[in-house]
Structures are given as structure tokens and as C-alpha cells.
Write a structure and sequence with these properties.
Helix content: 25-40%
Radius of gyration: 23 Å
Strand order of the largest sheet: 5-6-1-7-8
Number of strands: 12
Distance between the termini: 18 Å
CATH class of the largest domain: Alpha Beta
Mean pLDDT: 89
CATH architecture of the largest domain: 2-Layer Sandwich
Length: about 350
């Protein structure tokens, strides 16, 4: 008989903002936002004190300041965030080899078989949270369950510094009560569409047949059908295949001349090359992204027989794509460049379960 996996999802609490408050005592207990306060600035993340006012990540800084007049903007320190992330990932590796990072501040861990000979996934989650707090001074929230979907949702249930366990016998009832917006993988647009069809909770979703969901949502229909039944067979994959490397810049002032565009793109090319080199990445396709002052966006791509592994090659084709793009006097707000169509690499394996 196949045993169930035991999955933990660890998600750091307001990661960037919490580090800034930790390192700057005068910011503790205050509403802060990491990002730029300029007219075109965006909130990267914010403290829980700011969230009480409705401020959230990806929000315009102007809107954030309107909602929270006392909001303090803090310049990001990405080198510090990255160093702390490495600390946290090192802690994870003391408990299991099966770690799937989703971003700099969250990851799935499969602890079905683990390195501390602990039979309870819940106890492992508590130990990890304590280690993170002791070693970094930061709090994390954890979700514990038998699949990734449930663990991911559970980690968000009692933030900050919470832990939520969804046991197999509780899973379907747990999902049925969930508002559709809480489902991992259902964004605002999809949620609004579901509402139009009378789907507001996991229970509503579960009442719909597979053929109906497929008709309404295409390939995602099967995913929604499975999630409504708490079914998720995806493994925790400890080595992701990187699909692309890129960089982009949103400019404080719109670019209006060809010279400005070429000069700014050159800087982005340098950054992309450094990232390609650092990741030892090999891709065949280069893509230019241009966003205009009215927020309309275009992309242009070029695929070559070789690899984009040298700066000269990246520069040659990036500039070519830019010059081939008829921009005239259009004001450019953002330029981006990415390398994709990666060299194929190997994949990896799986595991089993015990008590929660």
C-alpha cells in the first residue's frame, strides 16, 4: 500500500521588512515598506503594522502612502536578504535533503523520511521554526500536510509565526470551507470568473463536474477539480531546472530617444550576462521586453543555433532586437531582457509517510 507523504511549507513572515526591522531597532513596531517612495515606486513588501492599513506588496507607493500617511519607506538590501535566505536553507538541509525553494523566503520540505529520525512532521516544523528564530531573529509560518497544495494553503492560515496542520481525515472538510480566493493557483481574475458561475468556496467547486470545469477553465479545469478534492500528487523536487535568466528596469523618467534606450539596455545586458555566468546557464533564445508609458507592452525574441553564454552574443542580438522594434518617439517606461530555451538537464526522485 502506498503511504502518504509528509510535506511542510515554510514561509517567512514579511521577510524583507522583518529583516529591516531586526537590523534597525528604531523601525520596530512601525509601519514600513521596502521599496521606493518615488512617484513610480512600488512596495516590494511591508511590515504587518503597514498591512493593517491595507498596504500590500506590488502596490503603488503613492497609493500605499495615501492609505498609511506615516508609512516609512526603506531602501532594500538584497545582499542581506540573500545571506539570510542561505542561512534558512542551511537549516532546512539539517532536517531533509528534499527541499524545493519557491522563492528567497519560502520552500516545500518533504520530511517523510528525514535526517533527524523524527516521526512527526508537526514536531519537525516546530523545530525548524525555533531554529530560524534562534539563528536569525526572524519568525516563520508553517503549513503541514500530506501534499503541497494543502501545506501551502495551511502556512498562510495563522500568520505571522503560526503553524497549521491539515491531517488526511480533515482534508476534504478543510478545502470545502475555503473561500475560492484562498486556493493556491487561483488569482483575482479567475476568482471573479468563478464567482460569476456561483463558485465561492471549495464546496461549490467540488460540486462541479470535470467536463464543466474543463469547458470553463480549459487545462486548469483538471487542476481545480483535483484541488477541490484535496488531491495533489506533485512531488517535492529538490532540483529545479531553471527555465530562464533575465533582468529588467522600470525607469524614473521615460526614455524618449534611441540613444537613451541603447544606453539603458546595455546596462541590462551586463546584468543578464552576470546572472547567466553565475547560474552557469545556457539558453538559445533571447527576448526583449518593452513597456510603454501607457503600460502597453511588447516582446521580441530571437533564437540562435548556439548559446547565449558570452556578453558579445547577448549584446549583439539584444541591440538588434531593439533596433528592429519600431519605437519612433514612443515613451518607454521599462526595458527587460531574458535568456531562455535552456539546455536540458536531468530530473530527480520521490518518497513516502508516518504520523502527523
Amino acid at each position: 500500500m502506498t503511504t502518504q507523504r509528509k510535506i511542510i511549507h515554510i514561509d517567512m513572515d514579511a521577510f524583507f521588512a522583518s529583516i529591516e526591522q531586526r537590523d534597525n531597532p528604531e523601525l520596530q513596531g512601525k509601519a514600513i515598506a521596502v521599496g521606493s517612495s518615488s512617484e513610480r515606486g512600488v512596495v516590494a513588501t511591508c511590515s504587518y503594522e503597514a498591512r493593517k492599513f491595507g498596504v500590500h506588496s506590488a502596490m503603488s507607493s503613492v497609493v500605499a502612502k495615501r492609505l498609511c500617511p506615516d508609512l516609512i519607506f526603506v531602501r532594500p538590501h538584497f545582499d542581506v536578504y540573500e545571506a539570510v535566505s542561505h542561512q534558512i536553507m542551511s537549516i532546512f538541509r539539517e532536517f531533509t535533503d528534499k527541499i524545493e525553494p519557491l522563492s528567497i523566503d519560502e520552500a516545500f520540505l518533504d520530511v517523510t523520511e528525514n535526517l533527524v529520525q523524527q516521526t512527526s512532521a508537526t514536531e519537525i516544523a516546530k523545530l525548524i521554526k525555533k531554529r530560524i528564530l534562534d539563528e536569525t531573529g526572524l519568525t516563520a509560518s508553517a503549513g503541514v500536510s500530506f501534499n503541497k497544495f494543502l501545506a501551502k494553503i495551511a502556512s498562510d492560515m495563522q500568520k505571522p509565526n503560526g503553524i497549521t496542520v491539515v491531517r488526511p481525515e480533515e482534508a476534504e472538510a478543510f478545502v470545502e470551507k475555503l473561500p475560492i480566493e484562498k486556493f493556491y493557483g487561483i488569482g483575482k481574475v479567475t476568482a471573479e470568473k468563478m464567482h460569476r458561475y456561483g463558485i465561492h468556496t471549495g464546496k461549490d467547486l467540488k460540486l462541479r463536474e470535470l467536463h464543466e470545469l474543463t469547458r470553463l477553465f480549459g487545462k486548469s479545469g483538471l487542476f481545480f477539480y483535483s484541488m477541490a478534492r484535496a488531491i495533489d500528487e506533485r512531488e517535492v523536487k529538490s532540483s529545479h531546472i531553471r527555465k530562464s535568466v533575465g533582468a529588467e528596469i522600470t525607469f524614473e523618467k521615460d526614455l524618449t530617444t534611441k540613444f537613451e534606450r541603447i544606453a539603458e539596455l546595455y546596462k541590462i545586458e551586463q546584468e543578464v550576462f552576470e546572472r547567466v555566468k553565475e547560474a552557469n546557464f545556457k539558453g538559445k533564445t533571447i527576448t526583449l521586453k518593452v513597456k510603454f508609458h501607457n503600460f502597453e507592452q511588447i516582446t521580441r525574441s530571437k533564437t540562435i543555433n548556439g548559446w547565449f553564454t558570452s556578453f558579445d552574443t547577448i549584446h549583439k542580438y539584444a541591440k538588434e532586437l531593439l533596433l528592429q522594434t519600431y519605437l519612433d518617439d514612443t515613451k518607454v517606461r521599462l526595458l527587460g531582457l531574458s535568456i531562455s530555451n535552456a539546455e536540458e538537464e536531468g530530473k530527480d526522485g520521490i518518497q513516502l509517510t508516518l504520523k502527523f
